[in-house]
Amino acid sequence: MIGSRKTQKGGDHSVNVQAEQVTVNTGLSIAHVKEIALEVFEGNFYKLAGVAKETADERARQITDQFLQELAEKNPEGLKASEDPDFQHSLFQTQKEYARCGDKELGDILVDILVDRSKEEQRSLLQIVLNESLTIAPKLNSIQLDILACCFNIAYTKRLDIVNSKTFEDYLNNAVLVFADAVGEKDSNYKHMEYVGCASIRAGSRDILKTLMKQYKAIFCKGFDREALGELVKECPSIRSVVIPNLHNVNLFQAGGMDDEVIKNICAKNSIPEEAMNKLIQLNNKNMMSQQEATEYLQSKCPKFEKFMADVKNSSFKNLELTSVGIAIAHAHSRKKVGFDADLSIWI
Q1: Could you tell me the superkingdom of the organism this chain comes from (predicted)?
Q2: Does the reported pTM lie above 0.90?
């Protein structure tokens, strides 16, 4: 326990491993895991004195309690991970970094990553990435964390729960633009992220508007009129089953489905002939917003969008490519800050 002399003792049903004074016990409860966690911290953290030691000890208890609470909620089977020396090292890494700074945002991210790490029993790529993320995340400030999360949410995800303009606008405002104030900060932030290994600044650039218009194509469809729909229905009456009111004008129509591939799948399920399907997609694509119209629409619905696009243009954000570690950290930050809930294994 914190405050006791550094010793390593083996009781009943325990095995001692001499690796940075790690103790491995078997058949553990949460109380036992907490005791081990604090012993690991006390046995390996820097020798401090006075108020600094008291502060570090208290922070170690706080982060350990937070981790165990989230572990019990999200992965109770993960208690057995405390038998693994590599996991104990990851746990100590979390305690050490939080004890040094006491930053709540960083603590939340580290705990989120550590809970995910408790699920990885084998030395998989995901386990390696999570271990490395616990080392790299403390080297980033809040601005850099927000830049990573903003890039991840707009360029590395496609939200399947977006079904209309309202859900799209909510996504853009609450999962992307909530992080966007950081994008226009000093360019040295991007260089630092590249230096610590969570991103690279590539020569080519990413067109954010084109990315959105491709990923969420249905949102940017202006719709076609009843006469155009009638021409399709003459050739294939069942085409009505895959056409919906336009998302912006209920007097117009568009194909159901967020993009061409989804439209094809819907048509196949409804036994729409290929020729009719292709004509529907062509008609849909003929009635898409221009980039200028899309920009005006987004600016009208998302107050931060205009400044965000200006910051993207004048920064290295458009050139940013995340590494596996950058994705893991951005994923954890997004989960903590905006409730993003997809499994990290989708990307790694």
Answers
A1: Bacteria
A2: no
